[in-house]
Structures are given as structure tokens and as C-alpha cells.
Amino acid sequence: MIAFVRGQVAALSLTSAVVEVGGVGLELMCTPGTLAQLRTGAQATLPTSMIVREDSLTLYGFADEDEKVLFELVQTASGVGPKVAQAILAVLSPDGVRTAIAGDDVKTLTKVPGIGQKGAQRIILELKDRIGAPTGGSVASARPSADAWRDQVHQGLVGLGYNAKDAEKAVDAVAPDAGDAPDVGALLRAALRSLSKA
């Protein structure tokens, strides 16, 4: 298995990053929060998880080891595959997931696209004893200048399937929370929450 990838970021899209490792471009599927921390041409080290299927080998990349561990753990719950696991991490921080599961917070888990009421209850039931307590660490985040975060959050929302108009409204809704040093991952999660209420 490939535990991590280190190399130059060759390309970024809304859902993935291509990292050049030894002359080979490896495509890593990443959450918008992770992608927001990467820059084309810059060096990056990403923990990875490889999902092997009959017809594909898919590498998922993460901001840190905690995200990777959680991604692999939530897939042990029945009905949760890699796409849903990645959606969970796009909407919630690792500690947010732990807090929701430990607190039987079905409502928070159903904010994740692809998880309904029964799915959330099943995840809580199956993972409650194994998820562990929140670590208290915040999501590692790039702190982009001025309004660069607006574009990153907007692209992340569009990449998750929201239309541009709704994405723009959600970006405007979270703008007051941006402050001087915006945390793109946190703002993206806030934007997703505002869209789930609408």
C-alpha cells in the first residue's frame, strides 16, 4: 500500500490533485479543504489511502494523518464507501465527526450528502466504541490572503455538486466569519451547513 505521497503538485482540479513522484503523476482524490492547501508547482506531502477495486486503483489524499485514519475508520461502518467517507471529511473536521458520533448527533451526520437518518444512526451505532474522543486539534489549514478564500470555497462547493448561484450565496453567508486569517476548510464546512439549512 502507498502510505503517503511526496512531490511537486503538477495539477489541481475541483476534486483531485496530481502530484509528481519520481517522474510519475499520481492523481489523489482530495476534499476541497485539502485541495485549498495545495498550490501548483509547490512541494506537498500527503498521507494517502489506496482503495483497490476490481476495475480500479484509487488513491485518496489527506491534509494530515488524522483525516486518513478517520477516512479508513468510517468505512468500516456498513454502507459507507470511500466516496461517502470523503464527503464526511469534506463537511466535518475529524474532531467534528468524533463529536457527532460520541454525542449521538444524527442531525449533524445527515448534513453529509449521501447519509440519511438510518445511515447516520448505523454509523453512530457501529463506530461509537471505536471512534475515540475528540483530540482538540484544529484542521490544518492554509491561511490565504484577502479574498482568495472566496474563490476556493466557491470552487469546492461547485465541485461537490452545488450550482454556481447557490455556491455564491453560501460564500456570501459565511463571509462575515472569514476575519483576517480565513480558514478555508472551516469556511467551506460553514458554507455547506448554510446550504443544508436552505
Detailed description of the structure:
It is a single chain. This protein has 198 residues and is an alpha+beta fold. The chain folds into three domains: 4-61, Nucleic acid-binding proteins (OB fold (Dihydrolipoamide Acetyltransferase, E2P), Beta Barrel), CATH 2.40.50; 65-127, 5' to 3' exonuclease, C-terminal subdomain (DNA polymerase, domain 1, Orthogonal Bundle), CATH 1.10.150.20; 148-197, Helicase, Ruva Protein, domain 3, CATH 1.10.8.10. Helix content is 43%, strand content 18%. The protein is built from nine helices and five strands. A five-stranded mixed beta barrel has the order 1-2-3-5-4. A hairpin with a 3-residue loop joins β1 (4-12) and β2. Residues 138-146 have low confidence and may be disordered. InterPro entries: DNA_helicase_Holl-junc_RuvA_I, Hlx-hairpin-Hlx_DNA-bd_motif, NA-bd_OB-fold, RuvA, RuvA_2-like, RuvA_C, RuvA_C_sf. GO terms for molecular function: ATP binding; four-way junction DNA binding; four-way junction helicase activity. One of its GO terms (biological process) is DNA repair. This is Holliday junction branch migration complex subunit RuvA.
